[in-house]
């Protein structure tokens, strides 16, 4: 049972503020992923929780107890580093046993624990090896074993699979998920890879320039991004963004993009709410993910003629760049749906998948169907 | 590197090997000379051209360790028969071993000087490497105010020839009574080696990723424990290399040992040439003393050779 709470964390490196008023409550057994670009403060946050970095203001609470003044060795937290940091002069067995040797656990109990965790991680056969003889994936298994073996209050992972190649990354991702389900411990996981974040997290915490942007389940941050940064950071290919003007014509709303006179059709209900938002905030940006752009090969009711510009065939699907006025909008289609570049197709935007942002502040109006 | 060598690469390789062999021979020649002289009968030591083939004997070593005097008259056959084999060797050379009133063999000054050398060199090496490692760790891991200046200051102690300060040092030592003491030389050699040790160890410790210690810190160890359990084993290569250099410097030091010591704490380097002395020197005895003097450094370096050769690339960290 471990809850972690961050209250009003401020952290400076010299004159640069790397964490700005961070507040976050993490539940017992929760798998939290801190997601952001490098330099966004996610690793510093993690190291602050571990006790490897001091904070300038705020409280870090573990199970309600403030720990910001407690040494790392006394916080009972384990950490897995991107570099693995296996002690090269020790065997795999000694590496895993190392945290237990810091405590007053008997030799027999150490042995039992090491062998048990090695069994869970399927590395029993490697216990006698030196780390330098292991593959990247096995090194990381050992690093995870070393972290889990003493059943810490919480598990911190700093890009644990970032150094592995793509195939191994996928494998280890599944392995980490399996372990979390099996062992269950409060986990904070740092990554810049949104696919990793989506696939592992109970909740994702997105950070940008030291500021927390949004906290939510993978589903929430994907379908209800709080601002343009989150919208573009999560999801691949990235969400289309286009400055838009909204008008009301003939019982439905029209959203004009790229300087074209005719706009995409939206239900009238949206138009009223959007005009309110516009009145308050001025400019507006339309955001839509490629799968929210619907394409037809023939003219259809509510679809607008556009020109296919570039087609990227990706096997399972194609990504098609559509020219809408002077704006390019990317759409996701079945493979080979659009016969070739330069062809005319008809497009509309799925109103349920459209997002509207305040161009000036970047935040979402929260107006969705 | 290509697995298959071209013809020109092979030729170049042979030239390189030949060059290495020649250079090695040049460097080994004096060592061969000393070693062979140490085992020669006295009458063959100074022949011209040098004698290469001879029956090796250990009489130079017997003479090295004992106090001897010239025989005025040859020993009686009974005396000769009663003497142990090593004493007969001395008789054969026209000398006799000096015995005390109770008949105990009197030792020469050499074993004592050799022990002094060992005590001074080992203690000062342990101190210089130990203190150097701690200092280097501090400089490497923590923000030290004026770090660059301090490091430069430490290095600056090596920027003038040590003999320049020999006279002031001698006067200081005499004033505080460190003259002709083991600690006097130990302090001197430690101070002399420390700057070198700090700089060398800082380089090695900088190479050890901080993450190792951080991992140990979150694994429940204090920084001191992390230092001894992680940093020291990881820095073993550097510690070995530094220790070899410090040991060699302390072991070979001549000038200060000559000035600062004369009897109690005198080390082997000033003692050996003093035995050349007046009259006809026995070169085989001097060669034996020099030969034995070479051994500790050779053994020490040999024992640490794996550490010296092992590169820093060894490890399990992804960079």
TrEMBL record, chain A:
<dbReference type="InterPro" id="IPR015855">
    <property type="entry name" value="ABC_transpr_MalK-like"/>
</dbReference>
<keyword id="KW-1278">Translocase</keyword>
<dbReference type="GO" id="GO:0140359">
    <property type="term" value="F:ABC-type transporter activity"/>
</dbReference>
<keyword id="KW-0067">ATP-binding</keyword>
<dbReference type="InterPro" id="IPR047641">
    <property type="entry name" value="ABC_transpr_MalK/UgpC-like"/>
</dbReference>
<keyword id="KW-0547">Nucleotide-binding</keyword>
<dbReference type="InterPro" id="IPR012340">
    <property type="entry name" value="NA-bd_OB-fold"/>
</dbReference>
<dbReference type="GO" id="GO:0016887">
    <property type="term" value="F:ATP hydrolysis activity"/>
</dbReference>
<dbReference type="Pfam" id="PF00005">
    <property type="entry name" value="ABC_tran"/>
</dbReference>
<dbReference type="GO" id="GO:0055052">
    <property type="term" value="C:ATP-binding cassette (ABC) transporter complex, substrate-binding subunit-containing"/>
</dbReference>
<dbReference type="InterPro" id="IPR040582">
    <property type="entry name" value="OB_MalK-like"/>
</dbReference>
<keyword id="KW-0472">Membrane</keyword>
<comment type="similarity">
    <text>Belongs to the ABC transporter superfamily.</text>
</comment>
<dbReference type="InterPro" id="IPR017871">
    <property type="entry name" value="ABC_transporter-like_CS"/>
</dbReference>
<keyword id="KW-0813">Transport</keyword>
<dbReference type="Pfam" id="PF17912">
    <property type="entry name" value="OB_MalK"/>
</dbReference>
<keyword id="KW-1003">Cell membrane</keyword>
<dbReference type="GO" id="GO:0008643">
    <property type="term" value="P:carbohydrate transport"/>
</dbReference>
<dbReference type="InterPro" id="IPR003593">
    <property type="entry name" value="AAA+_ATPase"/>
</dbReference>
<dbReference type="InterPro" id="IPR027417">
    <property type="entry name" value="P-loop_NTPase"/>
</dbReference>
<protein>
    <submittedName>
        <fullName>Carbohydrate ABC transporter ATP-binding protein (CUT1 family)</fullName>
    </submittedName>
</protein>
<dbReference type="InterPro" id="IPR008995">
    <property type="entry name" value="Mo/tungstate-bd_C_term_dom"/>
</dbReference>
TrEMBL record, chain B:
<keyword id="KW-0812">Transmembrane</keyword>
<keyword id="KW-0813">Transport</keyword>
<feature type="transmembrane region" description="Helical">
    <location>
        <begin position="151"/>
        <end position="171"/>
    </location>
</feature>
<feature type="domain" description="ABC transmembrane type-1">
    <location>
        <begin position="114"/>
        <end position="304"/>
    </location>
</feature>
<keyword id="KW-1003">Cell membrane</keyword>
<dbReference type="InterPro" id="IPR000515">
    <property type="entry name" value="MetI-like"/>
</dbReference>
<comment type="similarity">
    <text>Belongs to the binding-protein-dependent transport system permease family.</text>
</comment>
<keyword id="KW-0472">Membrane</keyword>
<feature type="transmembrane region" description="Helical">
    <location>
        <begin position="283"/>
        <end position="304"/>
    </location>
</feature>
<protein>
    <submittedName>
        <fullName>Carbohydrate ABC transporter membrane protein 2 (CUT1 family)</fullName>
    </submittedName>
</protein>
<dbReference type="GO" id="GO:0055085">
    <property type="term" value="P:transmembrane transport"/>
</dbReference>
<keyword id="KW-1133">Transmembrane helix</keyword>
<feature type="transmembrane region" description="Helical">
    <location>
        <begin position="183"/>
        <end position="205"/>
    </location>
</feature>
<dbReference type="InterPro" id="IPR050901">
    <property type="entry name" value="BP-dep_ABC_trans_perm"/>
</dbReference>
<feature type="transmembrane region" description="Helical">
    <location>
        <begin position="12"/>
        <end position="34"/>
    </location>
</feature>
<dbReference type="InterPro" id="IPR035906">
    <property type="entry name" value="MetI-like_sf"/>
</dbReference>
<dbReference type="Pfam" id="PF00528">
    <property type="entry name" value="BPD_transp_1"/>
</dbReference>
<dbReference type="GO" id="GO:0005886">
    <property type="term" value="C:plasma membrane"/>
</dbReference>
<feature type="transmembrane region" description="Helical">
    <location>
        <begin position="118"/>
        <end position="139"/>
    </location>
</feature>
<feature type="transmembrane region" description="Helical">
    <location>
        <begin position="226"/>
        <end position="251"/>
    </location>
</feature>
């Amino acid at each position: 049972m471990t809850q972690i709470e961050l209250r009003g964390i401020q952290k400076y490196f010299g004159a640069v503020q790397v964490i700005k008023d961070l507040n976050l409550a993490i539940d017992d057994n929760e798998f939290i992923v801190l997601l952001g670009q490098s330099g966004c403060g996610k690793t510093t946050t993690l190291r602050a929780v571990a006790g490897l970095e001091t904070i300038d203001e705020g409280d870090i609470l573990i199970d309600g107890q403030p720990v910001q003044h407690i040494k790392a060795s006394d916080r009972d937290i384990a950490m897995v580093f991107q570099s693995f940091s296996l002690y090269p002069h020790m065997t795999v067995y000694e590496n895993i046993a190392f945290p237990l040797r810091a405590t007053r656990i008997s030799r027999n109990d150490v042995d039992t624990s090491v062998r048990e965790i090695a069994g869970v991680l399927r590395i029993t056969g490697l216990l006698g090896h030196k780390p330098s003889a292991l593959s990247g994936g096995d090194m990381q298994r050992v690093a995870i074993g070393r972290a889990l073996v003493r059943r810490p209050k919480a598990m911190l992972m700093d890009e644990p699979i970032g150094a592995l190649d793509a195939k191994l990354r996928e494998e280890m991702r599944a392995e980490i998920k399996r372990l979390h389900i099996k062992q269950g411990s409060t986990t904070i996981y740092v990554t810049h890879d949104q696919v990793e974040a989506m696939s592992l997290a109970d909740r994702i915490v997105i950070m940008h320039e030291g500021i927390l942007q949004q906290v939510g389940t993978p589903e929430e941050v994907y379908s209800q991004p709080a601002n343009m940064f989150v919208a573009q950071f999560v999801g691949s290919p990235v969400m289309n963004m286009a400055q838009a003007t909204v008008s009301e014509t003939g019982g439905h709303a029209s959203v004009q993009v790229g300087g074209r006179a005719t706009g995409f059709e939206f239900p009238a209900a949206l138009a009223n709410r959007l005009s309110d938002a516009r009145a308050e905030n001025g400019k507006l940006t339309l955001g839509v993910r490629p799968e929210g752009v619907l394409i037809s090969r023939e003219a259809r009711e509510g679809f607008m003629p556009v020109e296919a510009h570039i087609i990227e065939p990706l096997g399972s699907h194609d990504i098609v760049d559509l020219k809408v006025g002077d704006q390019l909008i990317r759409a996701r289609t079945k493979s080979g749906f659009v016969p070739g570049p330069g062809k005319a197709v008809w497009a509309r935007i799925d109103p349920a998948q459209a997002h509207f942002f305040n161009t000036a502040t970047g935040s979402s109006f929260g107006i969705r169907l | 590197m290509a697995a298959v060598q071209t013809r020109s690469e092979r030729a170049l390789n042979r030239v390189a090997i030949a060059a290495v062999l020649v250079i090695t021979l040049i460097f080994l020649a004096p060592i061969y000379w000393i070693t062979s002289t140490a085992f020669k009968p006295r009458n063959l030591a100074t022949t011209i051209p040098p004698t290469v083939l001879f029956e090796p004997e250990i009489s130079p070593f017997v003479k090295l360790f004992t106090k001897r005097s010239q025989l005025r008259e040859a020993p009686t056959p009974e005396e000769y028969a009663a003497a142990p084999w090593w004493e007969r060797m001395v008789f054969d050379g026209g000398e006799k071993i000096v015995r005390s009133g109770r008949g105990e063999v009197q030792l020469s000054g050499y074993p004592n000087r050799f022990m002094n050398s060992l005590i001074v060199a080992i203690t000062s090496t342990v101190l210089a490497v130990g203190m150097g490692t701690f200092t280097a760790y501090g400089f490497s891991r923590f923000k030290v105010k004026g770090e660059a200046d301090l490091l430069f200051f430490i290095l600056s102690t090596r920027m003038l020839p040590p003999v320049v300060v020999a006279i002031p040092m001698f006067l200081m030592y005499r004033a505080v009574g460190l003259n002709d003491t083991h600690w006097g030389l130990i302090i001197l050699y430690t101070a002399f080696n420390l700057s070198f040790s700090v700089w060398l160890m800082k380089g090695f410790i900088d190479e050890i990723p901080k993450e190792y210690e951080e991992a140990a810190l979150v694994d429940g160890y204090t920084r001191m424990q992390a230092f001894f359990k992680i940093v020291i084993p990881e820095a073993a290569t550097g510690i070995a290399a530094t220790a070899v250099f410090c040991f060699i410097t302390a072991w070979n030091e001549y000038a200060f040992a000559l000035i600062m010591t004369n009897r109690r704490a005198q080390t082997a380097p000033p003692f050996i040439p003093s035995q050349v002395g007046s009259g006809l020197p026995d070169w085989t005895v001097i060669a034996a003393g020099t030969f034995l003097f070479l051994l500790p450094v050779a053994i020490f370096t040999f024992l640490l050779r794996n550490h010296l050769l092992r590169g820093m690339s060894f490890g399990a960290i992804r960079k």
